[in-house]
Task: inverse folding
C-alpha cells in the first residue's frame, strides 16, 4: 500500500514538473529576460540556458511519470530543486522580490515563496526515495529518445530569437521623418542631436514594449550608459506611462508623450517597439524586441 501511494505521489510530482515546463515555454520571452537579468550569461546564451532548463525539467517530469530510471530521475530532480533554491537565495541576497517564473507568469512566486515551495517538494521527494522503478529492454534508448524529442519540441515551439528571420535588422523606422521630428515638438526640447542617445518608441500598453524596456534597462545598467541619455517616446496617456514603468520593472528614464499619434505612427511605420541608437542625431542602430544585439549595444554604450 505504501509503495502504491509513493508511486502515485511520484507521478503527481512528474506531472507538476511537466506543467511547470509547459508554462515556462508559454512565457518564454519573460523567462529569458529573467535569466539574463542575473547577468551570468549574455543575452543570446540566456536564450539557450532558458530552453536547456525547460528541457531538463520536461525530461525529469516524463521520467518520473514513467517510473523508469528511478535513481537517475530522483537525483536529477533533487539536484535541480537544490540548484534553483540556491539561485533564489542569491536573489534574496540581492534584494529581489520579482516573480521567479517557476510557473511562468501564470502563477507568480517571489523568491522566498518559491524557496518554501522547493522545501516542500524536497520533503515530498524524500517520501518517494524507495520507490521501485520499472525496467524494460532498451530503456536507455527510450531515454535518449525522450531527451531528443523534448529538445526538438522546445526549440520548434519556441526557437531562440537569434535563430529566427525576425532577428535580421529592423527597417520599420522612417528615418527621414524621424530626423525631421527631432527638430519639432516634443522632441526638439530633448537635445537628441548632441552626442549619443537611445530613444525607445513605445506604446504604453504594449507588452513587448515593456519587455524591450526591461532588456534595455538591464543593458544600460550593465554597461554604465548614462540614464539621462535614454529617452522614451510614448503613445499613450500619463496614467498608461505610470503603469508601463510599474509593470515593466525597468528603470525610469526621461520620457515624452507624443500627442500627434498619426505622425508617430508614420515615423515608426505603425510598429511598436522600436529602439533607436543616435550619434549626433544620426541613426546608428535600430532594433525591435526580437533583434536587439547585445554586442552592438555594448559597443555603442561604451564608445566615447
Result:
Amino acid at each position: 500500500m505504501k509503495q502504491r501511494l509513493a508511486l502515485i505521489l511520484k507521478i503527481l510530482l512528474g506531472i507538476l514538473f511537466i506543467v511547470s515546463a509547459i508554462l515556462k515555454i508559454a512565457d518564454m520571452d519573460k523567462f529569458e529576460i529573467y535569466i539574463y537579468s542575473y547577468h551570468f550569461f549574455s543575452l543570446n546564451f540566456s536564450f539557450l540556458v532558458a530552453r536547456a532548463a525547460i528541457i531538463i525539467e520536461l525530461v525529469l517530469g516524463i521520467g518520473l511519470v514513467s517510473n523508469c530510471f528511478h535513481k537517475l530521475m530522483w537525483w536529477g530532480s533533487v539536484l535541480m530543486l537544490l540548484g534553483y533554491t540556491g539561485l533564489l537565495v542569491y536573489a534574496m541576497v540581492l534584494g529581489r522580490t520579482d516573480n521567479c517564473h517557476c510557473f511562468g507568469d501564470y502563477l507568480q512566486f517571489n523568491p522566498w515563496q518559491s524557496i518554501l515551495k522547493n522545501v516542500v517538494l524536497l520533503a515530498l521527494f524524500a517520501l518517494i526515495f524507495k520507490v521501485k522503478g520499472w525496467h524494460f529492454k532498451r530503456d536507455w534508448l527510450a531515454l535518449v529518445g525522450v531527451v531528443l524529442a523534448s529538445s526538438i519540441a522546445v526549440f520548434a515551439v519556441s526557437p531562440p530569437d537569434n535563430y529566427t528571420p525576425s532577428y535580421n535588422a529592423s527597417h520599420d523606422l522612417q528615418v527621414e521623418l524621424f530626423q525631421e521630428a527631432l527638430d519639432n515638438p516634443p522632441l526638439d526640447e530633448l537635445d537628441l542631436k548632441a552626442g549619443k542617445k537611445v530613444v525607445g518608441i513605445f506604446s504604453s500598453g504594449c507588452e513587448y514594449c515593456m519587455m524591450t524596456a526591461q532588456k534595455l534597462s538591464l543593458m544600460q545598467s550593465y554597461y554604465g550608459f548614462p540614464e539621462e541619455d535614454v529617452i522614451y517616446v510614448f503613445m499613450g496617456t500619463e496614467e498608461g506611462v505610470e503603469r508601463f514603468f510599474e509593470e515593466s520593472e525597468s528603470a525610469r528614464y526621461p520620457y515624452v508623450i507624443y500627442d500627434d499619434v498619426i505622425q508617430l505612427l508614420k515615423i515608426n511605420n505603425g510598429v511598436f517597439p522600436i529602439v533607436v541608437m543616435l550619434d549626433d542625431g544620426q541613426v546608428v542602430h535600430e532594433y525591435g524586441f526580437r533583434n536587439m544585439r547585445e554586442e552592438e549595444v555594448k559597443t555603442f554604450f561604451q564608445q566615447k
In short: The radius of gyration is 23 Å. The mean pLDDT is 93. Strands lie at 102-105, 196-203, 230-235, 255-257, 274-279, 282-287. The longest helix spans residues 2-26.
